[in-house]
Fold these 2 entries.
Entry 1:
Amino acid sequence: MYREKIEAYFAGREDELIQMLTRLASVKSVREEAQEGMPFGKGPADALAVGLELAGEMGFTTRNVDNYVGVVDLNEHKTILGILCHLDVVGEGTGWNTPPYTPTVIGDEIFGRGVSDNKGPAVAALLALKAVKELGVPLKHNVRMIMGTDEESGSGDIAYYFAREAAPKYTFSPDGTFPVVNTEKGGLKPTFSRSWPVSEAKPRVVYAKGGYRLNVVPPEAEALVEGMGQAHVEKVCETVAQKTGATYEVSMEDGKVKIFVKGKGEHASTPHKGLNAITALIAALAELPLAESESKKAIHALNTLIPHGDFSGTALGIAQSDAISGSLTVAFTLFELSQTGFTGRFDGRTPVCTTEENSLDVVVKAFAPYGITVEGKLTPSHHTPGDSPFVKTLLKAYETYSGNKGFCEYTGGGTYVHNIEGGVCFGATMPGFETNMHGANEKASIKDLITAAKIFTQVIIDLCS
Ligand SMILES: [Zn+2]
């Protein structure tokens, strides 16, 4: 039912979509310093104003919740469905072929920061609300669109909103890829450390460090070694490089040997796609003929427990997986060693089957023999059953309008719905389409956004009528 009407309604609507998206994506809505009444700065607040203006022009009731989120209601009934989008963006960076905040249409694609993540999908959702209204479908329930302004920098917007309002029975967020992401891994991101008295025995490591963000596989790391010749260190690094694949630059600095390691950065949820400079550095340090010391023991412990290339926590004893959420992943992302101790952190993504007993407790026990203390906790995973009527409704609408097979997937990354019971990520990018999100030349397919709008229209009708 309604399929033909929906198809007919969206025929020739590309220009309307482009105009709306252009208005939204012309606003540079990167998080800035908070200002009075603007918790995430002026850009995100300005984008929200445009989003609510667009909804207001369609005749919908809108509400600005203190510039944290904006709310758009389709009707006065009880809200059963929530659609969660965000209007903030990450910085534009460099390497663009078009001006990042002047959305540019080339063929079927529109280029600009935020056109895919997440302003395009927000426009598709707004058009879906408008379609349901203009098609005159009788509804028994309300759909509420919630437009956030801080998804990229901590999701403080959604936390603020849901501390004040109950979550709808069903929620989807078109902030990813079709079909449905119903499972998100949990997090195990402990800090491990040890301190010791300074040891003068040489050769020794003066310092070692790497990593700049917990959720990024470190692309660089470095160390300073005292009491060895450059040629000797170079030789060791050459051998280790063959195993790790990293690049080692060895140079002299004030009579000491500096080792600079280059790897490849990557999101911590997919560590196998990067090249971890910290573990590559530790692999080299562990091969040096260092004098006996607590520092040396710690380096060897780390090389044993989180060896280079172990992305699954095998050496730590926490490797595990399940059918709905895949394998546990480990990325050693922050490390700092001085003459008096060290601190490290890894970013672990845990499947649904993970408990504190089979993860954190095991890590604590693994480090204990080396006198290394571990602190942290397990953040729960998120799972909405793939066979629930809600998810089935989403998948059916997706199959109908895209012609593709619908299925559920898991992710190691967290999304907007991580803490919302019954929430899933649904669209709005079609599988296989490269959006370049967070990078230069971010783009969206206009045809696919129209298809997404049709899918959302059908879903609203199915769940609210
Ligand atoms: Zn996003």
Entry 2:
Amino acid sequence: MGNVKIGLEVHISLNKGIRTKMFCGCKLPAKPEPNTNCCPVCLAHPGAKPVFNRQVLKHALKLAIALNCGIAKQAIFSRKTYFYPDLPANYQITQYEFPLGTGGYVDLGNKKVSLKRVHMEEDPAALIHPGGVGNAAFTLIDYNRAGTPLIEVVTEPDIESAEDAREFLKKLLSIVEYLGIYDNSTGTMKADANISIRESGYTRVEIKNISGFKEIESALFHETERQMQAAGNNEMIIQETRGWDALLQKTYQMRKKEDEDDYGYIAEPNLTVIDITEEMIDEANKEVPELAQKKAKRLSDNYSISPEDANALAMDMELAELFEKAAKEIDPVFAARWLRKELVAVMKQSKRKIKAAKFDEKQLILLLKMLEKGGLTDVTARELLERLSKKSFDVEEYVKKHELEAVSDKGELRRLCSEAIEDNPKVADDFKAGKEEALNFLVGKVMKKTKGKAKAGETKEIIADLLKQGTEK
Ligand SMILES: [Zn+2]
């Protein structure tokens, strides 16, 4: 058993493929102006009754299947009672006794994280604290979010470190993106986490409401450190609920832990029980695509690319699709390397997704083809790739027009190298005296002269060769 035990409750907003809120007709996505997207149902006016949006169940079923869960025979909702301004009815409609999915797991490659449950629930309203929670003179409430659909995925305390948690979330994110039920560019993953360490006899400390990937990992890391330190100083670690201060990067005490029972769950009387039939499960099953893990294995088997490249490609559905198209026309190993390193770097720099960039795939593959044949240098190809990520253009024509072809004439390249040596006699002497880095300086000179159109490797070879000849003379 590990030294650290972490369990996560991850809330994922179903912000893709759903047109209305979970129990009313309010349109999604909500307009940005606060409190313009609500109705008597999601504001819990007396007498207003919820009607369940079946699309939420379809999405949830797909996820429960993709997470290898057992599926409940019926979809049943309960009321979770608590009094807080973000909840106009004073209860949240959720699933309690009978979650949609039970069991299941997420495979991290080297280990599996078991799941307790997967269930559907509505999101409360958003509380806005101008100037930050600690400083705000008042709190505003935006009911646009009230009643939007969420899925909660609850793990067993199988996660053993903050890094493990990040891996788990990465895998989960890839799954919900593959399923087309979540868009990370407009949504956030939120998590509650419980953490305990062996030194305290695994006394559970819960951290509430951490928002976003990076913060979840940081919160887990810092809370683990805090507990380890406390244990080291012989301090008691008490069962409690803590908050996460992203600004100070530390957790703080909120309250002593309440039990689930304090929420006073009762079955929701205004919603009918829905039978989940075999047909419904079959239909959802058909809509579960080949997921990242399986895809990675197939890519590495079919195209003989390294498992590492295959995994990196498969984590992003669009990237994997692009790779398969490219692999039909160029060497797959070459395509895999370029796409997962250079394309991903370009996208990261511009903070965009491949899909959002609307890459002209034909031109991108053409660019890779030219590069593969040696018609372009890596430097030029990278520049063209960046340009292509912004807008489409005819790569071949552009290369011709701007004379960007790699210097392929060996005689010409040799002449340029000689010139660089003659122009920099001192550097050449440095090299002969054993200063290896002098060689890179000369290569740089040739690159500058050719505007990056000389191939670095070839240039280096020629210069080294010329200098050695010089020494032998
Ligand atoms: Zn509404």
